[in-house]
Each structure stands twice: as C-alpha cells, then as structure tokens.
Amino acid sequence: MKPIHLTLICHARTEAQRVGRFAQDGEPLLELPSLVPEPAVRYLSAPELRARQTAEGLRATVDEGLRDCDLGTWKGQLLKHLDEAALQAWLSDPHATPHGGESLAALCGRVAHWMDSALGEGEWIAVTHPFVIRAAMLHALGAPVQSFHRIDVQPLANVRFSHYGQWRVRLA
What are the record keywords, sorted (predicted)? Predict the structure, then answer.
C-alpha cells in the first residue's frame, strides 16, 4: 500500500465572506487567484462556482464529494439577520438543521466517507470550502464534531493530510 497525500485548499475570498453572510449558489470570487499546477498531482474541485474559479488553470475534475454544506434557507443570509435562537441551536447542536439543509454532523460524515473512499494512492490537491476543510480536519484528528466551530479556515488556506493506514494532518 502506497500513501495518499491530500492538500485541501480553501476557495479564494467572496463577497459573502467579506460581509459576514452565508454564500449563495453561484457566488463568484472577488478576485481570481493564479494557482500553478504541479506535475504528477491530480486536481479536484468542489462543484460550486467559487471553488471552480479558484481551481481555474489546474485542470481540476469536479468532485461532488467536496461540495459545501447545504445551508438550506440560510443561503445568502447575513449572520446578524438570522433568528438568534435558531443560530444558537445550530452552533450548539451538530445535528441541528434549523435552516432545513444538511447538519454539521451529516457534513462531517459525508466528508469522512469521501476521504476514506474517493482517493487512490498518490498526490492530490482539492479546492473546496471552509466547512469541508473543518470536517476533514476533525476526521483526521478523530476529534468530536462539537469541535467544528473551533477551527477557522481563511480564503486560500491549505491543509495537508497523509494516509497510510490512517489519516494524519501534515504540518510543513
């Protein structure tokens, strides 16, 4: 068995991140980054426009397993305009879905399944979303989903993982 090396890159900055709201479907980037492909690396991208724009030039394959958390009726909403009780329920209970979308627990399970089954040996770089990167970190560390909101992922941040029998976070 040969190892898997996976780097998850957060999409570049959007207006939603700038103003403190949840992204909408089709949310574009504020500025296009210029990522340069490396030889012998396979590239993946989440299906949303902001991830595909960030991955532009990498010849990335769109992978549905990297899609962002479905926030249902909260898509496009400013955090300060959400019902405070519903937001508190969502922040404190990883199984809560006051928005009618995907729970954080379901997202973490989906990302864990993707990490454990979608990649073959070799070097992978995937452009995705802050929530997906948080879920991947929790899976690799074996941390409880209650730790989800304790991780900040900035635009264009990257986190490296390796797998040889188990997932590990790789610090470089």
Answer: Hydrolase
Model pTM? 0.95
Which residues, 6 or more positions from 88, have their beta carbon under 8 angstroms from its beta carbon?
A: none
pLDDT tens for each residue of 152-167: 999 999 999 999 989 9
What's the burial of 69, exposed, middle or buried (CB within 10 Å: 0-12/13-18/19+)? Answer: buried
Alpha-carbon span 61 to 104, nearest angstrom: 25
Pairwise CA distance, residues 87 & 83, whole Å: 6
Instruction: Indicate the number of domains in the chain.
Output: 1
What is the extent of the structural domain holding 136? 4-170
Q: What is residue 75's predicted lDDT score, i.e. its pLDDT?
A: 96
Round to the nearest angstrom and report the end-to-end CA distance of the chain: 23
